[in-house]
Amino acid sequence: MTTEPSDAADAVRHDIALARADLADTVAALGAKTDLPARTKEAAGDLAADAVRKGREAVDHVGDAAAGLPGQLRADATRVRDMVTGEGSEPADLRPVIRLAAIAAVVIAIVVWLGRRRRG
After folding, report:
1. Quick one: how far is CA 114 from the chain centroid?
2. Residues of the domain holding 111
């Protein structure tokens, strides 16, 4: 009969140890939820990583879009030259000139933006 109280006491001690471990985990989880500075830093890091990823995707997209520009620019420049010199058979149309100027402005803006981005 002396073994039964000992077994019961050991079982209670074991239950108490499990309850303490569970309580410690709960307290740690609550502490993590209330640690606002750490959560803020983590969220800011996530946002920064997303911004960098989206920025790289945008630069890649602009690079892909700009890859076809040299041929188009050359064709527009040739048409403009032919119109100005009178060698072209088309009547004077300013749309190619405006398109060439707009494309050049976009290319210059991208180059300036990338230059500032690398410095900053």
Report:
1. 16
2. 68-120
Indicate the number of domains in the chain.
1
Half-sphere exposure of 117 (CA within 13 A, CB side): 10
Q: What is the spatial distance between Cα 101 and Cα 95, in angstroms, rounded to a whole number?
A: 10
* Residue recorded with tokens 């108490």: 16
* Amino acid, single-letter form, for residue 39: R
Count helices and strands (H / E) in the chain: 4, 0
Residue 26 carries which side chain, given as an amino acid letter?
A: T
Tell me the whole-structure pTM to 2 decimals.
0.34
Question: What is the DSSP-derived secondary structure letter of residue 68?
Answer: T
Per-residue pLDDT tens digits of the chain, which is 120 residues long: 445 667 888 889 999 999 999 988 888 888 877 777 877 888 888 888 888 788 777 777 766 666 666 777 777 777 766 766 666 555 556 677 778 888 888 888 888 888 888 876
Domain membership flag for residue 63: no
